[in-house]
Recover the amino acids of this structure.
């Protein structure tokens, strides 16, 4: 039986733990619940991957043999709940290269492959399985998981569990119920950002008592990052700053935009000036997004223009600058995005280019992200009664009838995404081929709840604006917001 420190070196290639990793791992192995707040790229995944290996190793009798060990349906299993389908395969591939028996199950798999993996789980294979929270809607998944001893539950991107967080996902609200049905295993919740309010809500939603959960807060201080806000007056000034950063800085860079159409305008200007770059946004096909991210990760010196769809899983050391060409909607998303710079510890610049007109753009974007109850009902009625025409003429036909002349209005995309998250519809959103399988949940019909969500988003935007106007230490401002001593 190997010691955790041996596994750290032999499997993961590290001689020492980073930050609080050792204390977290020791607590997990002793059966204690933990809430981990740790910047992206600082080693959150090790905090459950290493214990998963140790717990599986402890359950195997005798010395490891050259032959694979015999499997038992009672073999311990670690489940990792994550919303990030694109990252699951990357993490599992990395674990398989290290010899860890891991897999993932999500909607990217063909049904035949999912069934095969279900069978393997039931037979006692896999020490670690990544799943989306939506997977727990499936009775066949519960059937196979129920045959295993789930000893550790890791909830990644745990801020998604809270309506107060910046990326709430409805299926995460069932994680507390899922924990109980799994037999209340040791639980570790992990996120890069969470205010004190969100921290409290995560523990509550997990059906845990606060006194039973130890908080490990790594803080958000990155001494090598230079945080700046530059006020600009037009797009020309933004463009000049981007070009200057591209020409005068070694390494890679990311420029974040709020709107795809603005991103494309800047891309056209860069191509006109023969400045190579990549573009990444949520309207691109998944295969195209994947290839773009792989190019960015594997090739040196790239500049990428992106919306906030880009970044999850980007663990590239030499990102020397992150520019925000638009005002971000919240300090949470801003911090996550600048956290992708300088992971090698070398000096890196994070510059927010603030044009006062961008505030109006962000407010418009916020309204698109918060359809009211009447809008949800209207979309639902169209999907129920006009699906034949929608399938025939596409989403543009539906948009014309929902938005009339407001062709840039994106509320329809938000409504469809939320209906998909709540299980109201099933199918694909790009291209739009769905069918209605449930009525709207109360949450999407509750006028007060939706209005309160809009108010919370407005409050987050105000906090972001106050950051822009702040005359003191901006890192301290961020620390104060996240409740870090």
């Amino acid at each position: 039986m190997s010691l955790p420190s041996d596994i750290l070196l032999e499997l993961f290639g590290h001689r020492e733990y980073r930050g609080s990793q050792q204390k977290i791992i020791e607590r997990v192995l002793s059966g204690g619940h933990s809430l981990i707040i740790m910047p992206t790229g600082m080693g959150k995944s090790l905090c459950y991957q290493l214990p998963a290996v140790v717990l599986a190793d402890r359950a195997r009798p005798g010395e490891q043999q050259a032959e694979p060990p015999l499997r038992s349906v009672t073999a311990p299993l670690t489940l990792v709940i994550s919303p990030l389908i694109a990252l699951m395969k990357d993490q599992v591939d990395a674990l398989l290269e290290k010899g860890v028996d891991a897999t993932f199950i999500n909607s990217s798999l063909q049904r035949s492959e999912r069934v095969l993996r279900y069978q393997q789980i039931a037979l006692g294979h896999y020490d670690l399985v990544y799943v989306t929270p939506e997977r727990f809607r499936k009775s066949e998944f519960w059937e196979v998981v129920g045959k295993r001893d789930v000893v550790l539950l890791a909830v990644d991107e745990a801020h998604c569990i809270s309506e107060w967080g910046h990326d709430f996902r409805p299926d995460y609200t069932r994680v507390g119920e899922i924990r109980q049905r799994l037999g209340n295993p040791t639980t570790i919740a992990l996120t890069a950002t969470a205010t004190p309010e969100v921290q409290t809500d995560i523990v509550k939603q997990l059906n845990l008592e606060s006194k039973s959960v130890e908080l490990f807060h790594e803080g958000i201080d990155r001494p090598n990052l230079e945080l700046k806000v530059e006020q600009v007056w037009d797009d020309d000034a933004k463009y000049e700053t981007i070009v200057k950063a591209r020409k005068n800085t070694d390494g890679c860079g990311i420029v974040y935009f709020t709107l795809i159409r603005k991103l494309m305008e800047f891309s056209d200007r860069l191509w006109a000036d023969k400045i190579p770059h990549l573009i990444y946004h949520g309207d691109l096909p998944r295969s195209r997004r994947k290839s773009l991210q792989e190019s960015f990760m594997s090739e040196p010196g790239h500049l990428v223009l992106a919306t906030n769809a880009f970044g999850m899983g980007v663990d590239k050391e030499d990102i020397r600058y992150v520019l925000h060409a638009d005002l971000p909607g919240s300090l949470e998303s801003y911090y996550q995005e600048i956290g992708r710079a300088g992971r090698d510890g070398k000096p890196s610049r994070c510059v927010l280019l603030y044009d006062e007109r961008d505030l109006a753009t962000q407010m418009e974007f916020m309204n698109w992200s918060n359809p009211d109850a009447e809008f949800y009902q209207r979309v639902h009625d169209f999907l129920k009664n006009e699906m034949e025409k929608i399938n025939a003429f596409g989403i543009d036909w539906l948009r014309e009838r929902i938005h009339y002349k407001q062709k840039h209005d994106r509320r329809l995309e938000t409504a469809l995404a939320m209906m998909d998250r709540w299980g109201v519809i099933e199918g694909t959103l790009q291209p739009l081929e769905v069918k209605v399988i449930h009525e709207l949940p109360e949450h999407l019909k509750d006028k007060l709840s939706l209005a309160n969500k809009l108010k919370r988003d407005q409050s987050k935007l105000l906090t972001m604006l106050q950051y822009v106007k702040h005359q003191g230490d901006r890192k301290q401002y961020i620390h104060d917001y996240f409740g870090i001593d």
